[in-house]
Specification:
Length: 132
């Protein structure tokens, strides 16, 4: 990728509803098309649905049958989308946001600054070696 590219940043968060702790990021995914982004959520929902309680499973399948179309249409309009369900005391939220992925600069053919050649790693920062 040598120029900015449109895509979608997808995340899955969980939140324990019985405590006042912050939500925890469980997974993230970079998608380059709307179908790829909503498929990421669909695969997750199909994977976990057998383990969900009946209400949460129903929410998951409602999104898979109807909500997915709404999500896809929102993404095609470059609007963010969120899918949320609650299983027992846990709220699971998938977010999909339109983004522009920027290319990363690489160092091939680039001259490093002179100070880079003076860097030597500290021995104590290395993990200890195992002995048999």
């Amino acid at each position: 990728m040598d120029k900015p590219q449109r895509g979608y940043w997808c995340e899955c968060w969980t939140e324990d509803l019985t405590t006042e702790t912050r939500p925890v990021l469980r997974a993230s995914f970079d998608a380059y098309t709307a179908p790829q982004a909503d498929r990421w959520v669909a695969v997750a929902l199909r994977t976990i649905s057998p383990a969900l309680d009946p209400d949460a499973s129903q929410e998951a399948w409602e999104w898979l049958y109807d909500g997915r179309i709404t999500t896809r249409n929102a993404l095609l309009r470059a609007e963010p989308s969120t899918v949320t369900l609650t299983q027992a005391r846990t709220r699971i939220t998938w977010t999909i946001r339109p983004v522009i992925f920027l290319p990363l600069a690489h160092r091939q053919g680039a001259e490093l600054p002179s100070c880079a050649h003076g860097f030597t790693p500290h021995m104590e920062s290395r993990p200890p070696q195992q002995t048999d």
